[in-house]
Amino acid sequence: MLKIYFFFKEKKNMGKIVKFTDGNKMQAGTLFCVASNYAKHADEMGTKVPSLPAIFLKPPQSIIYTGGEIILPEISSNVHHEVELVVVIGSECKNINREDAVDCVAGYAVGIDVTMRDIQAEAKKDGKPWAVAKGFYTSAPISDILPASDFGNNIPDFELVLGVNGVERQRERTSAMERDIPMLIEYLSTIFTLVPGDMIFTGTPKGVGQIQKGDRIHAELSSFISLDVRVK
Ligand code: MG
Fold it and tell me: How many other CB atoms are found less than 10 A from the CB of residue 139?
């Protein structure tokens, strides 16, 4: 009886679980997202790389997995893909120096920061937050996670690729980021404190564009891992 009770209690509180390629699992925490972290993307958006990292959040329930579906919200007529390197946090990180940042990383994944561009543009114009434009249900597809231990103490220079219906739209190396992973962890750990299962969406390179109902999106992190989702 007690066993059954705990089974259901656990189920109920499960939240979003993310999976590592070695079979380990983790409960997803807060998704910290970096805006304008690639100069050429800032250019295409008609903006500049900000003097401090510009951060917004997505809730964990915005996560979907490979094989899943992005549900286009009815309130938008212009939803965009943004392929990003996702860094998964593995330990509590408070006031971490950039030299120690790699110790906080549990793994790496490829994700898409799905964005209602028209709703975001309105929010920008009015000086309002981006939570609705960026954090809606199904707005955070992510692949399985590569364990950081596969790369020793190094943070690899990955290549991000995204295609829609077989046509490539985004390709860039993560070394083109304006703020690298150690700097982002140092900054976020000082402001927020990071906990296991939190993730950092590290920003998108140039080439963002609209997705439509029926589209098939394929994203890759070098040749290590890929992500496939459909648009509903
Ligand atoms: Mg983004």
Answer: 26
